[in-house]
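Design job #97: recover the sequence.
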């Protein structure tokens, strides 16, 4: 098998799975009732709301195993807006799944987005995070470093909760992470009576150190989080044989041109 090369591209795939908003104290808050994702992938839910207690977040479907998500990171801009990221390995295939946010103390305004992360090496798992709060148009968090496992990727998910209506915040500029994702928000009444959620994302195959950095369309109170999700290392692969020992020569996929 001299010269054999069985390398394949290892990657995390991010898929947008829906959004919703509510300004009528919905409890539970149903973000979507649709295709959520496949068993073994990671479901990620980004929630913005008025300041309140941490909710319980689940994915359910008739005849399917319920997935209960865990809080990965959250931050409150006191008195103004809260931003949370929850995630879990999906326990079933959800073709018509209901993502439900059950509140302890129900906020008035809320908005959320759902993301599915699929890793070709296996389930991406939560790694590190940072947070930030402020007022203005420059949303940011502290800086963090995330290095992928060998032959694998890291997904960076950024979330910003803004105390403002969607119409005033639907054109943010994302620097880090560098892709604009899903967004939704409430409308009506004074701007500060509304909540908007914004998502940014990035997939990297090398070590990266960065902070969330985004420019909001209008000045407002905001809360921001940045979280990373790492897939497992790629298995060693045979790329040839060592003649003297007739043993396989192993390399990680990223060492041969990933």
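Job complete. Output follows.
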């Amino acid at each position: 098998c001299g010269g054999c090369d069985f390398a394949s591209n290892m990657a995390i795939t991010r898929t947008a799975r829906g959004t919703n908003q509510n300004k009528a104290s919905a409890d539970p808050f149903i973000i979507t009732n649709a295709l959520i994702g496949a068993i073994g992938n990671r479901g990620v839910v980004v929630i913005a709301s008025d300041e309140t207690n941490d909710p319980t977040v689940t994915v359910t479907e008739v005849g399917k195993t319920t997935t209960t998500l865990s809080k990965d990171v959250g931050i409150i801009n006191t008195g103004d807006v809260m931003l949370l990221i929850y995630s879990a390995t999906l326990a079933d295939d959800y073709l018509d799944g209901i993502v439900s946010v059950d509140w302890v103390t129900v906020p008035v305004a809320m908005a959320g987005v759902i993301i599915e992360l699929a890793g070709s090496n296996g389930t991406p798992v939560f790694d590190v995070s940072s947070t930030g709060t402020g007022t203005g148009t420059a949303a940011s968090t502290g800086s963090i470093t995330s290095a992928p496992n060998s032959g694998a990727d890291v997904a960076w998910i950024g979330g910003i909760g803004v105390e403002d209506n969607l119409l005033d915040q639907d054109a943010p500029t994302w620097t880090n992470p560098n892709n604009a994702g899903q967004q939704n928000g409430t409308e009506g009444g004074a701007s500060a009576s509304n909540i908007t959620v914004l998502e940014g994302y990035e997939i990297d195959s090398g070590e990266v150190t960065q902070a969330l950095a985004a420019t909001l369309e209008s000045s407002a109170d905001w809360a921001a989080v940045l979280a990373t999700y790492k897939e497992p290392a790629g298995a060693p692969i045979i790329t040839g044989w060592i003649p003297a020992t007739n043993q396989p020569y192993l390399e990680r996929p990223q060492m041969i041109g990933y």
